[in-house]
Design brief:
Number of helices: 14
Distance between the termini: 21 Å
Radius of gyration: 22 Å
Order of helices and strands: HEHEHEHEEHEHEHEHHEHHEEEHHH
Structural class: alpha/beta
Strand content: 5-15%
Helix content: 40-55%
Largest sheet: 7 strands, mixed
Bound molecules: beta-D-galactopyranose
Strand order of the largest sheet: 2-1-3-4-5-11-10
Shape: globular
């Protein structure tokens, strides 16, 4: 999968280099932006610590890619907002005051951060929006195809329900944070697949503030109370951290034969729950592809390598404030039990020894994970 993605990226790059004809006689870009060398500082802002992907994968992958691209001379100023939008605004403002060269921003609240993004632009500091599309004048965006994430979750959920699924099946829907534009896209994608095929009762559908797992657990309990514990056909959970609490609530309500529960992010504990059958699926988003692209976009931007930057951003997206933002949207994969090996293990995200600890030995043997 990874190899295919890289092949496509490489061929797109050579195509666009040959096709765009913006090389001048010296071979450098004609759209000269002030260039810097390898001695640069990249500010990296991540949104929360609840979801392990940011600390375990996104940030470290970016950091090593930045080192590689700058011959180990580039510095990274890393901050995590721990789910607080005001904290993130302060962190970004401090980076502007400290005159970092470029910022990679994964926003807690894509709307609330817009004014600080404007300050960065005024100070001549490009901001690359990472994963979530921040509002304001951003220089580029890299993310996954987020509607596709929702579609993939929903299609796999329907698969889990089997061929007899119909509108008499009641599905609980626990969505992500209303301040995260991705959450809306996951929901739109999922609804496009579920509508008309199953029923999501109004009192079983929630948007979860801050993606907070305990809140998701409480919402699930409310939904079970509303539709009855014997009537839960499946639970659409927008991510893995919430799925963990949702499953606890299902069990606490006395549901012993767990219905299919979805997730996202391929958290290690979610992979283990999939092995034991507690969670039906997760979505693995190839973090190396996204994080490395962000590092490249940031470094190329400050180094004035416009051709390379353009080659990386062949897509375009609109935010509520800005149009035609150069973007790269990376593909995603559904992970059910039989796909663990070909996705997260093949990509080196987890070693089999990390997944198959003593408690999961039997489940791993059964799933052929050796
Ligand atoms: C989304 C992100 C997901 C998940 C979620 C919870 O924006 O795309 O991967 O981590 O936030 O923080």
């Amino acid at each position: 999968m990874r190899r295919i993605a890289m092949f496509v990226a490489a061929s797109t790059m050579s195509l666009s280099l040959a096709g765009c004809g913006v090389l001048n006689a010296t071979g450098s870009s004609t759209t000269a932006t002030p260039t810097k060398g390898n001695d640069i500082t990249v500010g990296v802002l991540m949104p929360d610590k609840i979801n392990t992907r940011y600390t375990n994968f996104d940030y470290p992958i970016m950091k090593s890619k930045i080192a590689e691209l700058t011959n180990k001379q580039g510095r990274v100023d890393y901050q995590n907002a721990a789910s607080s939008a005001p904290t993130q605004a302060k962190q970004l403002q401090k980076m502007i005051d400290d005159k970092v060269d470029v910022v990679i921003l994964d926003s807690v609240d894509s709307h609330a951060i817009a004014d600080t993004v404007k300050n960065a632009e005024k100070a001549g500091i490009p901001v690359i929006a990472y994963d979530r599309l921040a509002e304001g004048p951003i220089a580029g965006y890299v993310s996954f195809d987020n509607e596709l994430v929702g579609e993939v979750q929903a299609r796999t959920l329907l698969e889990g329900l089997g061929p007899n699924a119909d509108t008499s099946d009641k599905v609980i829907m626990i969505n992500g944070s209303p301040t995260d534009p991705n959450a809306k896209q996951f929901k739109t994608g999922a609804l496009s697949e579920l509508t008309g095929k199953v029923t999501i009762p109004a009192d079983a559908m929630f948007d979860t503030k801050d993606w907070d797992p305990p809140t998701a657990g409480k919402e699930t309990t409310k939904a079970i109370d509303a539709i009855g514990k014997d009537n839960v056909a499946a639970v659409y959970s927008a991510n893995d951290a919430m799925a963990a609490e949702i499953i606890k609530s299902l069990k606490a309500a006395g549901i012993t034969d767990l219905p299919p529960v979805t997730g996202q992010d391929a958290d290690l504990d979610a992979i283990q729950r999939i092995l034991t059958g507690e969670q039906y699926m997760t979505v693995y988003k190839p973090y190396p592809d996204e994080a490395e692209a962000a590092a490249e976009m940031a470094v190329y931007k400050v180094q004035g390598k416009d051709i390379q930057f353009d080659a990386l951003t062949q897509d375009q997206v609109d935010s509520p404030t800005n149009k035609d933002i150069p973007a790269q949207l990376v593909q995603v994969n559904a992970v059910t039990k039989s796909k663990i090996k070909d996705t997260v293990v093949a990509d080196g995200i987890y070693k089999i020894s990390q997944i198959c600890t003593a408690a999961y030995k039997t489940a791993c043997d059964e799933a052929g994970l050796k």
